[in-house]
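Quick start: what a row looks like.
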Amino acid sequence: MTGWKPPAFIVPHSQSWADAPITNVALRNIQIEFVGGGKAWTADQVLKGPGVDVRPLPGWGIYARGVERLSMDNVKLKLSADDQRPAIMAERVKRIDVIGVHYPRVPGVSEPFVTNQVERVLRVPSR
């Protein structure tokens, strides 16, 4: 299909709003293109728990919250239009393994990979 864009609900966002985290999330050998066009997330914006409506998230590509271990290996994120949010945003994650992950640098976005309350990050460049 030419020009088809996946709907927002299939993008890889892993969120646990419960007391117990999601145990393991692994993304391997994938390439995803996002529409983009989002505005920068500000510290005063409140992220609400999931409801029935689609809501904006602080990261345009991968957003993980309440995950014990997130592994990303050979992941390529693309944008159709610039987006002012980070490509990857992780909150309350125990461990993140980032191996060969690619995403575009967007002018005006100083931190494309943002972590908050993340205990350990392992970053390995492309092989």
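That is the whole record. Residues 1-11 have pLDDT under 50 and may be disordered. The chain has one domain: 13-39+58-124.
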